[in-house]
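In the current project phase, work has continued on tokenised descriptions of protein folds. One protein thus recorded appears below exactly as we store it.

——
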Amino acid sequence: MTKLPNIGKPATNALELLEITTLEQVAAHDEKTLLKIHGVGPKAIGILKEALAGHGLAFQEISAKSATHGVDFAVFCDFNCDNAPKKRIIRDYLIASASGNRTALENVLEASFVWTVPGEFQIKGRDEFITELITNLQEVSALEVQSLLSHGKEGSAHGTVTNKKGKHVYFSDIFTFQSNKPDAKISKLTSFVVIEK
């Protein structure tokens, strides 16, 4: 494994927070996605590009699937969910909730949706949830989904949201769908959240 070149402290820290510490790990991502990370600018990308070329590596080509999400933050996630429709729904929910995309949220949540954060609060109703989410929306730099699972009427995901100030929100979500059907909407969500201080 080849260590990162000197790309400056902000860029190095931003990548390290996402556990990207080697050139080989950089090569697993596309240039456009890395540029969306707070702290990683064109100068750092230029240095990385040169270092990659010097080791026979290159940035990943931009995937058509990742490009279609149209968000202005980096998304690190398994985009190969086409054979697992509920995993795709969970992934789309996570991206929509981080970006505050009302239409996308309406497409994946049923009208009587219930969101519970144990010991904190519960919100009943899709519209109430979306309003609360958009009211408290943070400027996101990166969304990293570390695992995505689905089985029958249930699913789960966990990961990290990094805001533009470099602070992390660690989440673990447990989803319940309205039925076993592949296109079922999300009816309940229980979230465990840790906010970095």
Residues 64-68 have pLDDT under 50 and may be disordered. The chain has two domains: 9-62, 68-195. The chain has eight helices and seven strands. Residues 68-195 form a domain with the Nuclear Transport Factor 2; Chain: A, fold (CATH 3.10.450.50).
